[in-house]
């Protein structure tokens, strides 16, 4: 069967993991040795700097420390039906591939007891920024801490879950709308046990979708409560949260190879885009526009016009965890309004509004008995630690998880009316035609083996269904598909 053929194609990365955990490797050391090696290092909270099982140094008074940190995600991906061996839309990467999804190395720690710091660099992988994070965090007041630099913005439960702790290989559709790690300043804290907040101002384009985005201002806020902790139910997590992200930025037209059912080169700007959750099609839904779309020839517009964009994004989150079981869900709704600054006589026909919504539901169960309450801290899940680490030839099981997620996006097709002179503005979006799906849903099944706190193997099978046929466009291919089925395997190492 083709399914098992694909499984065999994805097995080589596992050998890399098994080599690391065999023999006298770092991960095969006795726990007593690990504790002895790391005993001087203080354990901080989730947003702190020092890991109890990391590689670090600490001063004699305990007020200064440095800790080495790293993360490697090596992925294998095979597309089964509909899209075999085809290039992604507007991308040079292929659907079937082996790749370093992430490769990061850096340091974090504490200075003078009350200043946390972190500097993480992207060594390779799909991350485009050399710096992943780099910030100073002033923690003298735990209820009102201050963070400055480049850091993850306080938005959504899924976004605040670190890359090493996410339940699936990729986050849901909703994460594609929110802010990422941006340059700014934030006030955050935990005023009472079980309640968190974060308020941030940052400079960035819209989720850094394209390199042509111009710098603008974004404000982000999030608040969470854990009714389980507030009510004294230590064995359960009942999490509620809400967040918002608003601001303005500019987008500049750039060259695109995907214009419709036939490929060509044109100048346009990307306003909104979705990729599938398995990272197959990169532009299953996309809204693009030329300058003429917002400022027609009647008003002297051109294809190189810069569009000013206003963003309004809101998110609701819920999670319930009891024992080895966890359920979480989020709903996001966003509106984008774009206008052309070319002329001073703008009319309603020079403004475009796009709205979209996403949601997901997911269930995760720890087969080996690990408790989710132990993995929840500071308004997010920080990752499950195995009750019994697996040691090659020495026993232990590691932690085993099964998971399932249903995720969906829906986006409207925006239209542009006629100008005062009777000319109809042309929106180049691939949205009103068959090449572009206005909605899609994905069901993802997951099996995770957490070998020890630093090593994991994760297997996902994702099935995506589009509401209409989607063109797989490149300079040489115009095939279509209504489904995308992808099997993915990840080997993870973090410290």
How would you characterize this protein structure?
There is one protein chain. With 495 residues, this protein is mainly β. The protein has helices at 2-10, 12-21, 31-38, 157-160, 227-230, 291-294, and strands spanning 55-58, 65-79, 97-111, 115-125, 131-138, 145-152, 181-192, 195-204, 213-226, 236-251, 254-256, 266-274, 285-289, 307-322, 325-339, 351-366, 376-377, 380-381, 399-411, 439-452, 455-473, 478-494. The chain has a single domain, classed as Beta Barrel (Porin). It has six helices and 22 strands. The strands form three sheets. A 16-stranded antiparallel β-barrel has the order 2-3-4-5-6-7-8-9-10-14-15-16-19-20-21-22. The longest helix has 10 residues, at 12-21. The relative contact order is 0.15.
List the helices and strands and how they pair.
Elements: H1 2-10, H2 12-21, H3 31-38, E1 55-58, E2 65-79, E3 97-111, E4 115-125, E5 131-138, E6 145-152, H4 157-160, E7 181-192, E8 195-204, E9 213-226, H5 227-230, E10 236-251, E11 254-256, E12 266-274, E13 285-289, H6 291-294, E14 307-322, E15 325-339, E16 351-366, E17 376-377, E18 380-381, E19 399-411, E20 439-452, E21 455-473, E22 478-494
Antiparallel strand pairs: 1-2, 2-3, 2-22, 3-4, 4-5, 5-6, 6-7, 7-8, 8-9, 9-10, 10-14, 11-12, 12-13, 14-15, 15-16, 16-19, 17-18, 19-20, 20-21, 21-22
């Amino acid at each position: 069967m083709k399914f098992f053929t694909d499984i065999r194609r994805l097995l080589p990365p596992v050998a890399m993991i098994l080599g690391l955990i065999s023999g006298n490797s770092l991960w095969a050391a006795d726990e007593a040795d690990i504790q002895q090696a790391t005993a001087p290092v203080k354990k901080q909270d989730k947003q702190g700097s020092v890991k109890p099982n990391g590689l670090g140094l600490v001063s004699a008074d305990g007020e200064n420390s440095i800790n080495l940190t790293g993360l490697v995600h090596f992925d294998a991906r095979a597309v089964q039906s509909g899209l075999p061996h085809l290039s992604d839309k507007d991308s040079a990467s292929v659907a079937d591939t082996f790749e370093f999804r992430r490769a990061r190395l850096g340091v974090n720690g504490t200075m003078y007891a009350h200043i946390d710091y972190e500097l993480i660099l992207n060594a390779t992988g799909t991350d485009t920024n050399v710096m992943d994070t780099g910030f100073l965090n002033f923690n003298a007041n735990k209820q009102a801490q201050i963070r400055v630099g480049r850091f993850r913005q306080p938005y959504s439960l899924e976004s605040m879950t670190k890359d090493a702790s996410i339940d699936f290989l990729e986050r849901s559709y909703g994460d594609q709308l929110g802010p990422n790690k941006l340059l700014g300043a934030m006030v955050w804290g935990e005023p009472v046990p079980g309640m968190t907040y974060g308020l941030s101002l940052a400079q960035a384009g819209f989720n850094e979708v394209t390199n042509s985005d111009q710098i603008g201002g974004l404000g982000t806020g999030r608040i969470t409560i854990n009714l389980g902790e507030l009510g004294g139910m230590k064995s359960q997590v009942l999490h509620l949260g809400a967040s918002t992200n608003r601001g303005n930025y500019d987008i500049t037209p750039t060259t695109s190879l995907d214009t419709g059912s036939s490929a060509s080169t044109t100048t346009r700007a990307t306003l909104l885009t979705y990729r599938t959750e398995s990272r197959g099609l990169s532009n299953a839904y996309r809204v693009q526009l030329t300058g003429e779309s917002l400022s027609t020839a009647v008003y002297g517009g051109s294809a190189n016009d810069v569009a000013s964009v206003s963003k309004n994004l809101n998110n609701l989150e819920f999670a319930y965890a009891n024992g080895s079981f966890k359920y979480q869900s989020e709903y996001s709704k966003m509106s984008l309004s774009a206008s052309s600054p070319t002329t001073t006589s703008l009319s309603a026909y020079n403004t475009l509004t796009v709205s979209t919504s996403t949601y997901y539901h997911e269930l995760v169960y720890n087969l080996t008995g690990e408790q989710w309450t132990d993995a929840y801290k500071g308004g997010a899940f920080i990752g499950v630690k195995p009750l019994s680490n697996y040691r090659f030839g020495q026993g232990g099981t590691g932690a085993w998880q099964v998971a399932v997620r249903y995720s969906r996006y829906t986006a409207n097709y925006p239209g542009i009316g006629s100008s005062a002179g009777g000319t109809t503005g042309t929106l180049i979006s691939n949205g009103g035609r068959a090449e572009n799906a206005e909605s899609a849903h994905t069901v993802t099944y997951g099996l995770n083996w957490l070998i020890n706190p630093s090593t994991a193997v994760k297997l996902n099978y994702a099935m995506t269904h589009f509401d209409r046929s989607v063109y797989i466009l490149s300079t040489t291919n115009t095939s279509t598909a209504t489904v995308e089925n992808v099997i993915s395997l990840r080997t993870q190492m973090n410290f």
